[in-house]
Design brief:
17 helices; 459 residues; mainly alpha; 86% helix
């Protein structure tokens, strides 16, 4: 068999639990590494003061916007590519991958130019107070310089994962993450660059990850080939990528808007509230990243087997991922609930207000961690099999449909407590909303499978 045939056989014949786990371990490591170096930024910057810690939360909404573009093109192309490889349409997979990569570079450059031209006005729009503003500006400018590389890296990462090459993706992401953690204290304290040093460390680490992953494509280690000559001139290819990636755009874009709304609501209660919610966001991102990573290992299994019409393996993969994910996040939720004050104290031990606000908010979010696997896997399943509109709606629920109304309603009713419990309420409502979509999907999948079995009998 050729390398492509071996990969197809592996994705459609290997026992599902072992295959999902094998693909998930590298993606979990990648996601945890990303979350850890984001936390490292928050930790080291927090040593500069409460206002500096708040600035990280402000700029996080900007990074979420950059990620929204990168994930839209990356997840859109990745999900499409996994189905194409399952159908053994390798040339079309090359076309989709190349188109997404160069489009990401273009949109990233557009974000750089637009963001830098807005200056301080953009930071105020994102929720920066006058005391947080100088720190936010210093941090944001270097993040904006790296927007093209960040967007393109998301595409390369997702294309590698979509073809079952998650280990290669992990190498690129993890190496950059380790470099970021090492450079943070050097740039912030030793070189005395302050909060700008944290952003410079992030920029260098992103460039290294990009170069490593691009090397894998150029050296032939990837089944999918990236070439400027393969970029499509057909609008239909762009529409397929964008339509499939819309759930990621909505999820990440709404995360950016939700962060702005959260910062604005928290700012009413001072810099301590902004800093506390920023720190909680990074901690919960670390916890949630393990589930996202596990789900990203699950996605190519679903994509390949759905494309190959192995619907029994699609159901197996979902059941396995749901059981493992629920058990894992339940344990982390209990640990996080118990250790919330201690975790907050790691960041701002000398600010009791930050610890109290953050500990309550974190405990509230830990209560609904056990429900998140249903939401995550629903979104990923619908996106992978091409049910873009269902996936887009589900991905919009957590940070949009429910969070945005709640972040204005609950603080009006309960004050600061309303700010702290908004994410919890949104997570639980999202869980309830996903259940009928899943029931209908698996009912349709069973009908499609029965129809496929009936066709040979008719002939």
């Amino acid at each position: 068999m050729t390398a492509q045939e071996k990969q197809f056989h592996k994705m459609t014949e290997t026992p599902v639990p072992g295959l999902v786990t094998k693909l998930a371990v590298p993606t979990i490591i990648s996601m945890l590494t990303t979350a850890i170096y984001n936390m490292a930024d928050t930790f080291f910057v927090s040593q500069l003061g409460t206002s500096a810690a708040g600035a990280v939360g402000i700029v996080f909404s900007l990074m979420a916007l950059i990620q929204a573009v990168g994930f839209m093109l990356g997840m859109g192309s990745g999900a499409t590519i996994s189905r194409l490889l399952g159908q053994q349409e390798n040339r079309e997979a090359n076309r989709v991958g190349s188109t997404a990569f160069f489009t990401a570079l273009f949109f990233g450059l557009l974000l750089t130019v637009t963001g830098l031209s807005w200056g301080s006005g953009l930071m105020r729009l994102l929720g920066a107070t006058e005391t947080i503003l100088p720190y936010a500006q210093a941090y944001a400018q270097y993040i904006l310089f790296g927007a093209p590389v960040m967007c393109a890296s998301f595409v390369l990462n997702n294309i590698l994962r979509s073809q079952g090459r998650a280990t290669l993706s992990m190498i690129g992401i993890a190496t950059g993450g380790v470099l970021n953690i090492a450079l943070d204290p050097l740039c912030i304290f030793v070189l005395d660059w302050g909060i700008a040093g944290a952003a410079i460390a992030t920029l260098f680490s992103q460039c290294l990850s990009f170069c490593i992953m691009l090397f894998f494509f150029l050296s032939g280690k990837s089944t999918v080939r990236i070439s400027i000559r393969s970029v499509s001139r057909k609008p239909g290819v762009y529409w397929t990528i964008i339509k499939t990636g819309l759930p990621s755009l909505f999820r990440q874009g709404l995360a950016s808007i939700a962060t702005v709304a959260l910062n604005v609501s928290a700012a009413v209660y001072g810099d301590a509230a902004v800093a506390a919610m920023s720190i909680v966001g990074r901690i919960m991102m670390l916890i949630g990243s393990a589930m996202i990573g596990f789900g990203q290992g699950y996605m190519p299994v679903v994509g390949f087997n759905y494309g190959a019409k192995r619907f029994d393996r699609v159901r197996q993969a979902f059941r396995y991922a749901l059981v493992v994910g629920t058990a894992f996040l339940t344990v982390l939720g209990v640990v996080g609930f118990i250790l919330a004050p201690q975790l907050m104290a790691l960041f701002r031990a000398d600010d009791q207000a930050v610890i109290e606000i953050g500990a309550f908010a974190m405990r509230a979010q830990c209560l609904t961690l056990m429900f998140q696997p249903v939401s995550v896997l629903s979104n990923m399943t619908f996106q992978t099999v091409g049910r873009s509109w269902q996936a887009t709606f589900v991905s919009s629920c957590r940070q949009g449909v429910f969070f945005l109304p709640f972040i204005y309603l609950l603080p009006a009713l309960f004050g600061l407590t309303g700010v702290e419990i908004t994410q919890t309420a949104a997570d639980f409502c999202t869980f309830l909303c996903c259940i009928p979509f899943l029931v209908r999907f698996f009912r349709d999948l069973r009908k499609e499978e029965d129809l496929g079995k009936a066709v040979p009998a008719v002939r």
